[in-house]
Design brief:
- With 250 residues, the chain is mostly helical.
- It has one domain (27-247).
- The protein is 77% helix and 0% strand.
- It has helices at 18-39, 45-49, 52-61, 63-79, 85-96, 98-146, 148-156, 162-169, 176-186, 188-199, 204-210, 218-247.
- α4 runs parallel beside α6 and α5 packs across α10.
Length: 250
């Protein structure tokens, strides 16, 4: 009597070898350089101002194409850590208007952040662990203790660069899903502030010639600065309030 063959177990795929990671890293760097070269002129306000009416007309005629292209470009620029996300946010908010830009940039920036997070995790984590394992372990312990609140706090602090958070978090043990939804929530308020500023731009020519002063007056700039400071202080205050409530006897 023959016994049925035991089901084959799926063996885990081996991790990429050093040379494969080197090739992948080279490919990522090549893509980042190509992306920067392709879009750098679109960071030049004076260049965009010369095509202002044509851009507006094309958007009216082809909204789906423009929105899809804007999403992909923003996600690639942020995902490959190409500098220029802030001016691109202002320009897109001027071009698309506040509500549309807020939704598009919010999801595109989170998509880009997750791409950068995954690149860091799969290309650099093993190398960092082999050399700075003790320090990274302590960071992981702090992250496990604070939970997603730690990442949420970092997202609300304007002084911590966007690309630094993405790449550092990729070296930790935080799940990708947690990284995505916390980033989506934590970056929303800051994105709204930038989109508001961009939506106030009357035209790119004025912005090119006179700077941000032609869009926002001193009082509005002060209000935005205060809003960013309050955003960075909110998670600290919330943490202290929660700690007091936990220690308060019933």
């Amino acid at each position: 009597m023959t016994t049925p063959n035991a089901p084959e177990t799926t063996r885990p795929q081996p991790a990429p070898t050093g040379w494969k990671k080197a090739w992948l890293l080279g490919l990522v760097l090549l893509m980042a350089v190509a992306c920067f070269i392709a879009v750098r002129q679109y960071f030049d306000i004076a260049y965009l101002a010369s095509f202002e009416q044509q851009l507006k007309s094309f958007y009216v005629s082809n909204p789906v194409i423009v929105l899809a292209a804007a999403f992909v470009i923003y996600a690639l620029v942020t995902g490959l850590s190409v500098p220029g996300a802030s001016p691109m946010t202002l320009v897109m908010a001027w071009f698309l208007g506040f509500p549309t830009a807020l939704v598009l940039i919010s999801f595109a920036s989170t998509t880009g952040a997750t791409i950068a997070f995954l690149i860091s995790r799969h290309l650099f984590r093993d190398w960092i662990e082999s050399r700075f394992g003790d320090r990274l372990e302590k960071f992981n312990e702090a992250l496990e203790k604070e939970g997603a609140f730690y990442l949420f706090t970092l997202r609300l602090i304007p002084l911590v660069p966007f690309f630094v958070i993405n790449n550092v978090m990729g070296l930790t043990k935080i799940p990708t899903r947690t990284f995505w939804w916390v980033s989506q929530l934590g970056m929303l308020a800051g994105t709204a502030i930038y989109c508001y500023a961009g939506s106030r731009i009357p035209d790119l020519q004025a912005l090119s010639e006179h700077g941000i002063g032609s869009v926002l007056n001193r009082q509005q700039l002060t209000q935005i600065t205060i809003a960013l400071v309050l955003l960075s202080l909110f998670p600290i205050a919330a943490k202290k309030i929660i700690a007091v409530l936990r220690t308060k006897p019933a």
